[in-house]
Design a protein that fits this description.
The complex is a heterodimer of chains A (263) and B (356). With 263 residues, chain A is α/β, with parallel strands linked by helices. Chain A has 8 helices and 10 strands. In chain A, strands 1, 2, 3, 4, 5, 6, 7, 8, 9 and 10 form a 10-stranded mixed sheet that branches. In chain A, strand 2, helix 4 and strand 3 form a beta-alpha-beta unit. The longest helix of chain A has 14 residues. By secondary structure, chain B is α+β, with helices and mostly antiparallel strands. Chain B is built from 12 helices and 12 strands. Classes of the chains: A alpha/beta (263), B alpha+beta (356). At the A-B interface, helix 4, strand 3 and helix 5 of A face helix 12 and strand 11 of B. Strand 3 of chain A pairs antiparallel with strand 11 of chain B, so a sheet runs across the interface.
């Protein structure tokens, strides 16, 4: 029995690229690469291995409430705008807080806020906006009992150069997860405090699905509430011994430095 | 110069811009030099119209006849000020014998402005009560008394405003009449033989019409700010779609898409049965012609250009999904103590003067 000739891997990859089955991020010679949408955190950009949210991806932020999904989405929106992009925030629950967004660096004058009637309409509006090919980032902040179908939006996004970030309840995330290009699991590890004030949270970010690079990327993000972003580079972080979840959280009143309290 | 002023008192109270444009268009038959002061007030240069229309009374009667069914007041004088004063003092029955006689009219004799004004009370001058009180302190009760004072003395007591009022009291008003530029409209029509079955069947014809008109405008570096599509329908009332474009544009694709989106929304909302009517013809009209919007802002704000383009998509979404969907945040009280009061949400398409 003769074994088939083994083709060297680079040649296989080249052949795949020529056939349009490219799954990596290496551009073809002469190809103009549209930079990824920045996440607002260099460590996460690196963990994703694509320099940010890949264009055309539906990215699901797997996080329970209070674990930093909305904060990360706001940071991504701010970073995208800082790079000259336009952002739409699809706010189904009507909970978008302009003051908080502005404090996290979002330029409100270049933010399109969409208030759909239900989940299905939210996805339809997202598809209409994506088709304009003018938006860089669509944040889908969904809520409610109905679970719309994400297949059409996921199929449309690669042709639009836009990235959609989904935050929402577990059922919606599961429904979107089947067609998502990226799933990022966020888990709060610690609270961040200055003196007696909570200023943010430390969350671990794990890439559990990635259509354009290897999965398994991991990093820790410090997500600050509003003004806390300005405190970060100035004050050294201090770790506080781990506590049980039911233990009363006591913040050190006299501590002037940034402290990290376990969650 | 002889100036005729027309005032439609009831039209000023009503919000009917379309009819106002129509009235101004009709007045073009009287004179080519017409100034629209505000809605319901027009100035017409009637200098040298006697050979065409006859005496100034006939000119005034002709203006009243052209002024439509609304009550109108007419005044003729040597300048804007005298014409407006004539309108204020006008009484019915001065002109014509028929319907025109009901219009209030006054014609001040040419070249006799100062003499005509001399016995009139000084209170007719356009000024505030404080200045009138000062006039009465000086014992000035008629315009003739103010007109007779040395100009330097009036300037010393009342300043620049006093000089201006004295000039008016002498029947002088240097402000010229600024004729309006007649709004230009371009229209084209298409007939369907046999009639088109529905809205989708007229897409090609509509795009062809839009291309024909925008090509003509593009050559003159003009772009329409509004598009009006009128459909003639078989056994149904005509249908009109008025579309104010997000910005002046010569892109026939976008004009066609937005018109169709509006049309589909209108047909969906119409009474049952009418949406089935076959279309026998269409007329596309483009107006509010201006130079296309300048595109220099994106050089400084990278998002500005794309936001302007996005407004076209937003317009389509508005037509498709209805109102209340698309909003933007306006930070109008950045120093408010409570964060929730610093900004407010404004629905896109309903904001006034809030665009950055």
């Amino acid at each position: 029995m003769t074994l088939p000739a083994v083709q060297p891997l680079p040649e296989v990859l080249d052949a795949l690229r020529e056939r349009g089955l490219r799954r990596g991020v290496t551009p073809l010679p002469g190809e103009m690469v549209v930079p990824a949408v920045p996440t607002g955190h260099a460590a996460l950009d690196e963990a994703l291995a694509t320099g940010g949210w890949p264009r055309g991806a539906l990215a699901v932020l797997d996080a329970a409430p209070g674990h930093g999904a909305t904060s990360l989405a706001l940071d991504s929106a701010a970073a995208s705008q800082a790079a000259g992009g336009l952002v739409a925030w699809i706010d189904l629950a009507g909970t978008f807080d302009p003051a908080l967004a502005a404090r996290r660096g979002v330029q409100l004058e270049w933010l399109l806020l969409v208030r759909p009637a239900d989940g299905a309409e939210a996805l339809e509006l997202a598809a209409w906006l994506a088709r304009s090919r003018l938006l860089d980032l669509l944040v889908l902040d969904l809520d409610g009992p109905s679970v719309p179908r994400f297949e059409r939006l996921a199929a449309l996004l690669p042709r639009s150069d836009a990235t959609a970030l989904l935050i929402g309840p577990s059922a919606l995330r599961q429904a979107a997860g089947r067609v998502a290009g990226i799933r990022l699991r966020l888990e709060r590890r610690a609270w961040l405090a200055v003196g007696g004030d909570l200023v943010g949270l430390r969350t671990s970010a794990s890439v559990t699905r990635h259509r354009w690079a290897l999965t398994g990327g991991h990093t820790e993000l410090d997500l600050y509430f509003g003004e806390g972003r300005r405190i970060d580079p100035l004050i050294p972080a201090l770790a506080i011994p781990e506590r049980r979840s039911d233990e009363h959280l006591e913040l050190p009143a006299e501590q002037p430095a940034l402290v990290v309290l376990s969650a | 110069m002889r100036v005729l002023m027309l005032v439609w008192p009831t039209l000023r109270a009503m919000d009917v811009p379309t009819q106002w444009e129509g009235l101004l268009d009709r007045l073009d038959d009287l004179s080519p030099r017409i100034e629209a002061l505000e809605e319901g007030v027009a100035l017409v240069d009637v200098t040298g119209l006697e050979p065409i229309h006859g005496s100034e009374r006939r000119v005034a009667a002709r203006a009243v006849a052209l002024a439509g069914m609304y009550p109108v007041r007419v005044g003729i004088g040597d300048n804007r000020w005298l014409a407006s004063l004539a309108v204020r003092l006008a009484r019915p029955g001065e002109i014509g014998n028929g319907a025109e006689a009901r219009a209030a009219c006054l014609i001040l004799p040419a070249g006799e402005g100062r003499a005509t004004l001399a016995p009139m009370p000084i209170g007719l001058l356009p000024t505030d009560q404080a200045v009138r009180d000062r006039f009465s302190l000086f014992g000035l009760t008629t315009m003739g008394q103010l007109a007779g004072l040395p100009r330097s003395a009036v300037a010393a007591q009342f300043g620049e405003a006093g000089e201006r009022l004295q000039a008016l009291a002498r029947g002088e008003d240097p402000r010229p009449l600024v004729p309006r530029r007649r709004p230009e409209r371009l229209a084209t029509s298409a007939r369907f033989e046999p009639p088109a079955e529905g809205v989708t069947e007229i897409t090609l014809a509509l795009r062809r019409a839009a291309t024909a008109l925008t090509d003509r405008l593009g050559g003159r570096h003009l772009a329409p700010g509004r598009a009006v599509l009128s459909l003639e329908r078989e056994a149904a009332s005509p249908l009109s779609v008025h579309l104010a474009l997000p910005e002046p544009s010569t892109d026939p694709d976008w004009i066609t898409r937005l018109l169709l989106a509006r049309l589909e929304a209108q047909v969906r909302g119409s009474a049952g049965g009418e949406d089935e009517a076959r279309i026998t013809g269409l007329t596309l009209t483009l107006d509010r012609l201006t130079n296309p919007a300048a595109r220099q802002l994106p050089a400084f704000e990278p998002q500005a250009g794309r936001w302007e383009e996005l407004r076209w998509s937003v317009e389509r979404i508005g037509a498709r999904f209805g109102e209340g969907r698309l909003w933007r945040v306006v930070v109008d009280r950045p120093t408010a103590a409570l964060p929730e009061r610093q900004a407010r949400l404004v629905e896109i398409g309903h904001e006034a003067g809030t665009h950055p």
